[in-house]
Amino acid sequence: MNKINEMRIDFFATEENVAFARAAVSAFLLPLNPTLEELEDVRTAVSEAVTNAILHGYEGKGGTVRLSAELYEGGRAVLEVVDCGVGIEDVEKAREPLYTSRPDMERSGMGFAVMETFMDAVSVRSRLGHGTTVRMEKQLGCGAMPEKAP
Fold first, then answer.
1. pLDDT in tens, 34-60
2. Does 107 qualify as catalytic in the annotation?
3. Alpha-carbon gap, residue 75 to 32, rounded angstroms
4. What CATH number corresponds to the domain at position 32?
């Protein structure tokens, strides 16, 4: 499958930038002509991944989050959210619904479950002391780029 576009942005790990990440990925995906539901699915999954990086990866102490996205012919979008934070000790445990590493924050522990619900595929790589990469994939639109006017 041929890549037709890609982007990568780095931003400070602060809660205010969750909305920025959502807006950036929305604008980037528009050429694939996604439905509003598909666009909101991706925005929600990106919000969860970025929020996890900020609150769990960096424990709210700041750092850099990288959001990258690739678009492929046929309407496939591949997104990654990367942090260089504390990492996840047990990825499988962290992916269990209702599990949270920060019960003091009264978080729901549903971040990965939400990502998996809204995306076609989610994978997580993490290394203690080195950070986490969340990779998400989604098929968008009717699988074709909109026709350009002559």
1. 999 999 999 999 999 999 999 989 988
2. yes
3. 6
4. 3.30.565.10
